[in-house]
From TrEMBL:
This is MFS transporter. It is a multi-pass membrane protein. One of its GO terms (cellular component) is plasma membrane. It is found in: Cell membrane. The keyword Transmembrane applies. Pfam families: MFS_1. The chain crosses the membrane at residues 20-45, 57-76, 82-103, 115-140, 146-165, 177-194, 200-221, 241-266, 278-299, 306-325, 331-348, 377-395, 415-436. One of its GO terms (molecular function) is transmembrane transporter activity. InterPro entries: EmrB-like, MFS, MFS_dom, MFS_trans_sf. Residues 1-442 form the Major facilitator superfamily (MFS) profile domain. Keywords: Cell membrane, Membrane, Transmembrane, Transmembrane helix, Transport. It comes from the Archaea.
Length: 479
């Protein structure tokens, strides 16, 4: 449900903008507020889950998610909708922060790549179903209905998980409240600064930008000196772990910029209805659902480097092909390009997810899961900001509020989309480069494994020899 609600709103943003009579910079907060609170608390709850139990945190988040979904559907104004979506993101943080740690608990290491491939399918399925469900429900029942779909699904999910998930033992919770608060403030100020740049409020943007940098410095200082940090910055001394995280951040930015920007192009330039827009947006996630498990299996057998590199290359080609979209393109032109982008993401994500989760010891599983979720959602937050900024650079905000664009206005919005995909292509090139920086080949993994095996064998041989020597000495004394 978490990825569904990260994408279900996208196809309805143009409709919500028209319904409340607000511009793009305001309506994007319906999405951004959800992502900010999700991102701001995901590390906190991942750390909390290590002590309190991932299963308990997940169930509490699921209950809160259902409740806030009902509140979103009852929102009387854009301000209330933004508020309730922020609370929904808080509940989502509780769920997504521990989900990958629960997956790691459930599968042995030799099947971890395949399991994480299935996990990627679940994420992709949410992203795939989100636009379609959002488009159909919003088109026939109004935009408020897109939140009501969470109620029956969430209730059934809660009952199912309550009966199946085995509760782990509680330990004393070690809090890092200052770190959590500083992280949230820094993220909010960063996003608000980018929003002010969109609205050309440069003085305010400079002030909030400086405040964001100061808060970031305080957060780093807090995390380095505290005994139990919400984010263990020392993990990033691991070059491979840092490369994994940064490359995933780039990938999620590429994907989510498309989910944010393409609906405006489809509805306002190509004049497609919401239901058709939702179906077009399913192209990438549907391909990811199909290919991601296979990519995970390949990573288990041959290593992560080659499929991750190919994922970056395919994503670059897909995004550059979108620069050929015009005001005269059709839905199929967009669908096939998004499908190719989904293929690149599927090739990239499963191997990289596996490599990231395998890089750290099991006692840091919750922290690694939280960092991975943070990487994904930080990419989503920045994707919305950057895509909105690039679109605004090509067309005035008041024109985006129009239900349809024609002539020069339509061409300008299309040019804004071209800027978005070019930026995404640059990020994809970075993904391909980082795949060689951080990811191991299968051969390298085998060599490392053989070294460990030889060391263990020598240790066992020494113990055996020592035991035999002791037995010989005992027998000699008795003789």
């Amino acid at each position: 449900m978490v990825p569904i609600n990260a994408s279900i709103i996208n196809v309805s943003l143009p409709t919500i903008s028209t319904y409340f009579g607000v511009g793009l910079s305001t309506v994007q907060w319906v999405l951004t507020s959800y992502l900010i609170t999700l991102l701001g608390f995901v590390l906190f709850f991942s750390r909390f889950g290590d002590f309190y139990g991932q299963e308990r945190v997940y169930l509490a988040g699921l209950a809160g998610f259902v409740t806030t979904s009902l509140l979103c559907s009852l929102s009387p104004s854009i301000e209330w909708l933004i508020l309730f979506r922020g609370l929904q993101g808080l509940a989502a943080a509780m769920m997504i922060s521990v989900s990958m740690a629960l997956v790691r608990k459930s599968f042995p290491s030799q099947y971890l790549g395949r399991a994480l491939g299935i996990y990627a399918v679940a994420i992709a399925a949410g992203l795939a179903l989100g636009p379609a469900i959002g488009g159909i429900l919003s088109g026939f029942l109004g935009w408020k209905s897109i939140f009501l779909v969470n109620l029956p699904v969430g209730i059934l999910d809660f009952i199912f998980c309550y009966m199946i998930l085995k509760r782990s033992q509680k330990t004393r919770v070690k809090w890092d409240i200052p770190g959590t608060v500083l992280q949230f403030i820094c993220l909010f100020l960063t996003v608000y600064t980018l929003n002010m740049v969109e609205e050309a409020s440069y003085t305010t943007a400079i002030i909030t930008g400086v405040m964001a940098l100061i808060t970031l410095g305080l957060f780093i200082y807090q995390e380095l000196r505290t005994e139990n940090p919400v984010l263990n910055l020392k993990l990033f001394k691991n070059r491979k772990f840092s490369a994994f995280s940064l490359s995933l951040h780039f990938n999620y930015m590429c994907m989510y910029m498309m989910f944010f920007a393409v609906p405006f192009y489809l509805q306002k330039v190509l004049h497609l209805d919401q239901a058709t827009t939702g179906l077009v947006l399913t192209a990438s996630p549907v391909i990811m659902m199909t290919v991601a498990p296979l990519s995970g299996m390949v990573a288990d057998k041959f290593g992560s480097r080659f499929p991750a590199f190919m994922g970056g290359v395919v994503s670059t080609v897909a995004l550059l092909s979108m620069t050929q979209l015009t005001v005269d393109s059709n839905a199929w032109d967009v669908f096939f390009r998004l499908a190719l982008l989904g293929l690149g993401a599927a090739l990239f994500q499963s191997p990289t997810n596996k490599a990231l989760m395998s890089e750290l010891p099991s006692e840091n599983a919750g922290m690694a899961s939280g960092i991975l979720a943070t990487t994904r959602n930080l990419g989503m937050v920045f994707a919305v900001c950057y895509a909105g900024l690039l679109l605004h650079s090509a067309i005035p905000a008041e024109l985006i509020e129009s239900s349809a664009l024609y002539g020069a206005d339509a061409a300008n919005l299309t040019s804004g989309l071209h800027l978005v995909v070019i930026f995404g292509a640059i990020l994809s090139i970075g993904m391909a480069i980082l795949s060689f920086t951080g990811l191991k080949n299968k051969k390298e993994s085998i060599i490392e494994y053989e070294k460990v095996a030889v060391e263990k064998t020598i240790q066992v041989e020494r113990k055996v020899v020592g035991t035999i020597s002791n037995l010989v000495m005992v027998m000699t004394k008795h003789q």
